[in-house]
Amino acid sequence: MSDNTDCDDGDASVHEPQLYYVDADGDGYGSTTTTMLCESVAPNGYSDNNTDCDDGDASVHEPQLYYVDADGDGYGSTATAMLCESVAPSGYSDNNTDCDDGDINVHPGAEEVLDNDKDDDCNGFIDDGALGEEALELDVIKVLPNPFNTNLIIELPTRYNSQNFEIFLFDLNGRLIIEHNLISVNGIITVNHLETLQQGMYLLKVSTALDNRKLIKRVVKF
């Protein structure tokens, strides 16, 4: 024949160069870098498509769904992003289980902190299981002064007169600081000698054996 345009006269399936895409990571998916080869099928290192979003990582070739993790605690929000990453990069997560992505201390498995009005462990309940007990408020009660310095006065409903109370003071990490067993006098319980406490916020727990009711309030030492 007078035609000499066959680029590979030993392969009847190809006679002119074909367009292929560089497949640097060898995952079968090519990049946007092209070349012309006299091959009927893509040889090693090349592909017949250019669909690889990251040709330097064989574990990923198309964008994956991730969830925004704004507070960096490893638990994502409901905000999504499609990223060409085989594992969630910084600022993202492979789950959307964080109920407050603006607070690094709030996420599944976190420890509940009493009386902070937050669902710390994202189980749908506020303050459940904190310090091992459920907080049940007394009918009417006043704790003063708040902020306090040397003492706390607890004013109780009249039906709690002359009753025995357990008084606990915890720091915000749930560590017991003070424990007293006191009797209300004329509806009043006074907790004295608090001047040595460090300044900051505490959790006051008042518990009565009369009906097994409990009160938990935040108090501040100045």
State the helical fraction: under 10%
What general form does the structure show? rod-shaped
- Strand elements, count: 13
- Element pattern in H and E: EEEEEEEEEEEEE
Rg over CA atoms, rounded to whole Å, is: 34 Å
Strand content: 25-35%
Distance between the termini: 103 Å
Question: What is the mean predicted local confidence, pLDDT?
Answer: 88
Largest sheet: 4 strands, antiparallel
Kindly report the oligomeric state of this protein: single chain
Query: Which blocks of ≥5 consecutive residues have pLDDT under 50?
Result: 131-136
Q: In terms of structural class, how would the helical and strand content be classed?
A: mainly beta
The number of helices is 0
Strand numbers in spatial order across the main sheet: 10-9-12-13
Pfam families: Cu-binding_MopE, Por_Secre_tail
Keywords: Signal
InterPro entries: Put_metal-bd (IPR021655), Secre_tail (IPR026444)
Organism: Snuella lapsa
